[in-house]
Structure formats: structure tokens, C-alpha cells
Design goal:
It is built from 7 helices and 11 strands. The chain is an alpha/beta fold and about 240 residues long. It has one domain: P-loop containing nucleotide triphosphate hydrolases (Rossmann fold, 3-Layer(aba) Sandwich). The protein has a 7-stranded mixed sheet, with helices on both faces. It has a 4-stranded antiparallel sheet with strand order 2-1-4-5, with helices on one face. Helix 3 packs parallel to helix 5. The two termini are about 15 Å apart. Keywords: ATP-binding, Lyase, Nucleotide-binding. GO terms for molecular function: lyase activity. InterPro entries: AAA+_ATPase, ABC_transporter-like_ATP-bd, P-loop_NTPase. This is Phosphonate C-P lyase system protein PhnL.
Length: about 240
């Protein structure tokens, strides 16, 4: 089953003080089946994050379509969905992990992860247990569980951010440099969660500068320069889709 299909996607930005319009990305096409993972690679400024933010609708696409197979709405074009539909999808179906964490200052790490589960309809007891499992998996020091994350290091914030997004087991997960400030052991933990989510049917779109991290993990690699997805083969060879 096709989970997401992007056709002729493009995004422009207006530079008001210069009275100019800049074409950030254009002509983007790729398709993912349920449970597949595509990694997007390219130089800085090539528009990788723009693609993810447009799927999540932080940005409103200017060209093309982003067809997503929603459990609630069926096939829906995220480029034209209503704000109400987007808010529902963000809450129940589509997760987003950024290398930055913006949270309410009066919520502890444990509370943030528990809230993510309670939003999905879990009981307080299940939310408590699964939150503790997630925080333990990502090796967030137990002393930090009931601490406000405003005091955390960059790596601690990122691990908490990943825990909050992955604990919901979204149908579609967007990963924007999720290992940017992590040590090798934490990267392994992230990889383990990605592999488990894929096995459970989650479809993933991710941006990574760490090519070694992506090795053997992605079904496809999309190069911003060539604008063509490369599908990985089981034997380790690759071919253009």
C-alpha cells in the first residue's frame, strides 16, 4: 500500500526586504510504500528540511501534491488539507522529530512523554509505564525525568524529542537530523527505535548527514542534486527508481 506520494513538489519563499522571491525546491518526486524509509541527502541549503516541513505543513507548498494515505481521511493531499485536518493528523498519525526542542517550561520530561501517549487515548497507567520505558531506552538520566528540559544539554533535549515522537508509534514519521548532536551510543538507540517502528509498519522520511548511520537502514536514498530516488537492493546494490 502506498503511504505517501510526492509529485512535482515545489516551494518558494518571499524575501520582503529585497522584494524578491526565491525558489527553495522544485520538481521533487518520490513515492513510499507502507513501512518503507527514504533518506534525503544533499548539501546545506538544498531544501531538505523544506520538504519535511511541507509534508508536516509547517510550510504551505506552492506547487505539486503530497498525497498521504490517512487512516482517518483516506487519500488526502497534505498540500491542500484544511487546518483542522492537519492538526488531527499531527496529533494521531504524523510525527516530526527536529534537532531542536520547543516545549512548555512547566512540563517535566516524564510529563511530556506521558502527554504524548494520553493524547493517543492511553490510560494513565499505560502512559506512565511506556513513558518510563522510552526514557530508559534513550538513556535519559533518571534524575532528569522530573526536571524541566529547559536546563538540558542539546543531546538530552534531542533524545527527549525523539522519545516524545516515537512513543506514539505514528503511521508516518519525519526525521530532521535526529542524530545531529548525539554520541555514538545514542545514535544506536535511535537506530534501534527506527528499526522497530519500521517492523511495526511506520513509514519514515529522514534527513541525515551521517551516511554511515543510514547504511542498511533506508529502502531509498533521495539525492537533492539529481532529484532522483535511489532504491536500495537486498544484495547491497542500488538502482535508480
Amino acid at each position: 500500500m502506498t503511504m505517501i506520494e510526492i509529485k512535482d513538489f515545489g516551494k518558494r519563499f518571499s524575501i520582503h526586504h529585497l522584494e524578491e522571491t526565491m525558489q527553495a525546491v522544485e520538481g521533487i518526486d518520490f513515492c513510499l510504500e507502507e513501512g518503507e524509509f527514504i533518506g534525503i541527502v544533499g548539501k546545506s541549503g538544498s531544501g531538505k528540511s523544506t520538504i519535511l516541513k511541507s509534508i508536516y505543513r509547517t510550510y504551505l507548498p506552492d506547487e505539486g501534491s503530497i498525497q498521504y494515505n490517512s487512516k482517518q481521511f483516506g487519500k488526502i493531499d497534505l498540500a491542500r488539507a484544511t487546518e483542522r485536518e492537519i492538526l488531527f493528523l499531527r496529533k494521531y498519525e504524523i510525527g516530526y522529530v527536529s534537532q531542536f526542542l520547543n516545549v512548555m517550561p512547566r512540563a517535566t520530561s516524564r510529563q511530556l512523554v506521558e502527554r504524548a501517549l494520553l493524547e493517543m487515548g492511553e490510560t494513565e497507567e499505560v502512559a506512565r509505564l511506556e513513558a518510563e520505558q522510552a526514557l530508559t531506552h534513550f538513556e535519559l538520566d533518571r534524575k532528569l525525568w522530573d526536571t524541566y528540559p529547559t536546563t538540558f544539554s542539546g543531546g538530552e533535549k534531542l533524545r527527549l524529542n525523539i522519545a516524545m515522537a516515537t512513543v506514539k508509534k505514528p503511521r508516518l514519521l519525519l526525521l530532521d537530523e535526529p542524530t545531529a548532536s548525539l554520541d555514538q551510543q545514542s545514535k544506536i538507540k535511535v537506530r534501534e527505535i527506527i528499526e522497530k517502528l519500521r517492523a511495526d509498519g511506520t513509514t519514515l522520511v529522514g534527513i541525515f548527514h551521517d551516511i554511515e548511520f543510514m547504511e542498511g537502514l533506508c529502502d531509498q536514498v533521495f539525492h537533492m542534486e539529481s532529484k532522483r530516488p535511489i532504491r536500495k537492493m537486498l544484495a547491497g546494490s542500488i538502482h535508480e527508481s
